[in-house]
Amino acid sequence: MEKAYRIKKNSDFQAIYRRGKSVANRQFVIYMMPDKGLTHFKLGISVSKKLGNAVTRNRIKRAIRENFKVHKDDMLPRNIIVIARHPAKDMTVLEIQKSLEHVLKVAKLFNKRIK
Q1: 3-state DSSP call for residue 79?
Q2: Where are the domains of the chain?
Q3: Which residue has the higher pLDDT, 99 or 38?
Q4: Is the pTM of this model over 0.90?
Q5: Is 37 left (phi over 0), alpha (psi -120 to 50) or beta?
């Protein structure tokens, strides 16, 4: 995912945590906050060390990024933070995709109807 689509700064994460809205399911928590002037979404991913070793955490992050790449054109321009919860570590990429799509639909972050 290109740099323009990333949230990296701790101050940006903290601002979204404080002022953003959250939606969750068993596997993921989504924090979102609108931002004036954004033409596309920006994504931050947080996977705790409690979920496993670096290999496991990176696999989860890759699956999350891939899901957002697939839906890049379908997303509303928002700042989005995805936090992985413990059940996500045992999921396949397809299960992660379905779970993320579910929580994104609940959060109403798609700009059109996704099957």
Answers
A1: strand
A2: 3-106
A3: 99
A4: yes
A5: left
